[in-house]
Design a protein that fits this description.
- The complex is a heterodimer.
- Helices cover 63% and strands 2% of the residues of chain A.
- By secondary structure, chain A is an all-alpha fold.
- In chain A, α2 packs antiparallel against α5, α5 packs across α6 (157-175) and α6 (157-175) packs antiparallel against α11 (289-312).
- Chain B is an alpha+beta fold.
- Chain B starts with 11 loop residues before the first strand and ends with a helix.
- Classes of the chains: A mainly alpha, B alpha+beta.
- At the A-B interface, α4, α8, β1 and α9 of A face β3, β4, β5, α2 and α3 of B.
Chain lengths: 323, 246
């Protein structure tokens, strides 16, 4: 386990972070889980047959994905213009994310209708759904990863974490349907167990990287921000304005990281430890969909905390002009 | 289209002289005054006369204290607005095409009718050049006073950005930084103009001129008032000598 994943934060960072907006946290967690579940449905994960089961599974997967996407529109200044966001897919990751999400949900709509009414899960259509769902989660992560201004996000580990968390929440949700009873508890419990552990291990590496990959480590400080560092030690004497402004509220936020260390422990407890213990119990006992459902809920709660920290622990270059 | 142009015919921008800026904020105020009634939506303020005033501004003056190892600290006023970067990350992240860089003169603008107010462009800017308008909910930024510089209804002397026109210290200069023979390019060459945070890879057009080196007194030179020589003659000389002897 990376040694400095759980501490060292306050030592390295200067004290300002990105504002964690609830709508964006909910968006990334919920649509991540929804598209993760759709990925697994597309791959043919065992689920109960019949119209109702197909309907419930689809409603859950699509519901989580759409709830997340809708939530993300709440932080827009002009949601009525959201359709324009589908136009710039050549250059913009945010636009690509919109295009991928809508394309994937549309293909899944066809897949789900055929599944509900004929009981057949068409393999090639499912493969398209899986590819689209993975692409959607990847593009979501790239919205943040692309930002050079936020060094903690600007790493290949960010999409790796988003994808692994998406798969892990998807498999936990699939496990909650209990269709794999025929195979016994061992296969599904061990898949869930390994995915959960792999995902959180990746997150530990992400945290370790975030501790080290600071603005300062990338050679940016108040000296380079002002270009005056060669003269002497540069420090802010007076802010340009007496109150707050958009920049200080969004990017020079002060309270998010206050309890970062405790929150990392809570995230690991809910997101990793609880699901792992449940899986270990289930390996030894008979399979229980309800316990998997519990594990899923705990995992999601852990992800909300993790996603809060994703913002709260990220420092933005503009803070160099304000700290 | 939110792809960046391959190249721009001109690179219009500002050169800001940190040696002469006195931090009076006149450029900030004139910027707000011009731009609240010009291009796009007004620049709104919330609680303007209350306890927590807040609003959108396109130009801000920070003040920094610089302490050299071997000299006393000095103060530098630091005006900051959009740098109209050649590799502007705020343009390519925009999902709607609202944010764009003009190929004719390199000015980075926001087409406010297309802006969904997602804020991603502000997140992508290392300089804090973009602010969301709290009333209109669209992204606001320096337009380089695009509605002044080409405006033939204005006297020619006024066809420069409002901040440049108003600066009482002449610390702000406007021109084509893509033309090596322009006044601003010569000024940059002469005074060692530089980019802010070059490590961010944004290739800003605007340049900053560093403060000129300060002359610092050294400790062993001590200035003391010179005593006038006492060489009074006559009665006053006798008086002086007599009093001295007392």
């Amino acid at each position: 386990m990376p040694r400095d994943s759980l501490d060292g934060l306050m030592r390295h960072w200067k004290g300002s972070d990105m504002h964690p907006a609830v709508s964006v946290i909910f968006f990334t967690v919920s649509s991540g889980a929804g598209f993760g579940f759709l990925t697994l449905i597309g791959l043919g994960v065992p689920l109960p047959s019949g119209f109702l089961a197909a309907f419930i599974a689809s409603a859950l997967g699509v519901g989580l994905a759409v709830a997340g996407l809708l939530s993300s529109t709440f932080h827009l200044g002009h949601p009525e213009r959201a359709l324009l966001a589908f136009t710039q897919w050549r250059s913009s990751w945010l636009s690509r994310e919109g295009v991928c999400a809508v394309a994937t949900l549309s293909i899944y709509g066809i897949y789900a209708l055929i599944w509900m009414f004929t009981g057949e899960r068409i393999v090639w259509l499912g493969a398209l759904v899986s590819i689209g769902a993975v692409a959607t989660v990847f593009t979501t992560a790239m919205i943040y990863t692309q930002l050079k201004t936020v060094p903690q996000w600007n790493s290949w580990m960010t999409p790796a974490c988003y994808l692994l968390f998406s798969f892990a929440s998807g498999i936990l949700l699939a496990a909650s349907f209990g269709e794999w009873v025929a195979f016994g508890a061992y296969p599904i419990a061990s898949i869930v167990l390994s995915l959960t552990i792999v995902a959180w291990t990746m997150k530990l590496f992400w945290w370790q990287n975030a501790n080290r990959n600071t603005l300062q480590a990338r050679g940016s400080d108040t000296g380079t921000a002002t270009g005056l560092g060669h003269i002497g030690k540069v420090k802010l004497f007076e802010r340009p304005h007496s109150g707050e402004n958009y920049l200080t509220r969004e990017m020079v936020h002060k309270i998010g990281r206050k309890h970062a260390l405790k929150l990392r422990v809570i995230a690991l407890f809910l997101g990793a430890l609880v699901p792992v213990i449940i899986c270990l119990i289930l390996v030894g006992l008979s399979p229980s969909p309800i316990l998997f459902g519990l594990a899923f809920c705990s995992f999601m709660a852990g992800l909300f905390v993790e996603r809060w920290l994703f913002f709260a622990e990220a420092e933005h270059a503009v803070s160099l002009y304000y700290d | 289209m939110t792809s960046l142009p391959q190249s721009t015919n001109k690179k219009l921008g500002l050169v800001i002289d940190l040696d002469t800026c006195v931090g009076c904020h006149a450029c900030v105020v004139n910027c707000k005054e011009w731009n609240t009634s010009g291009y796009g939506a007004p620049l709104s303020d919330l609680d303007a006369y209350g306890a927590e005033p807040s609003g959108s501004w396109l130009n801000r003056i920070h003040t920094f204290e610089i302490t050299p190892d071997d000299a006393p600290a000095s103060i530098v006023h630091f005006p900051k607005s959009c740098l109209h970067c050649d590799d502007a990350p705020c343009v390519t992240v925009c999902p709607t095409g609202a944010s764009y860089k003009r190929s004719e003169d390199g000015i980075v603008l926001v087409e406010e009718d297309r802006c969904i107010g997602c804020g991603l462009c502000a997140w992508s800017c290392p300089y804090g050049a973009r602010e969301m308008d709290p009333v209109e909910n669209v992204m606001k930024k320096c337009t380089l006073c695009v509605d002044r510089i080409y405006n033939e209804n204005l006297p020619e002397v006024d066809r420069v950005p409002a901040c440049v026109r108003t600066c009482p210290a002449e610390a702000r200069h406007f021109g084509d930084l893509g033309d090596p023979d322009s006044d601003v390019s010569k000024l940059v060459a002469e005074r060692g103009g530089y980019d802010l945070m070059p490590e961010q890879g944004t290739s800003p057009v605007n340049k900053y001129l560093p403060p000129r080196p300060k002359t610092h007194g050294t400790a062993d030179i001590v200035f003391t008032p010179k005593e006038p020589p006492l060489n009074a003659k006559g009665f006053l000389g006798w008086l002086d000598a007599a009093l001295e002897r007392l």
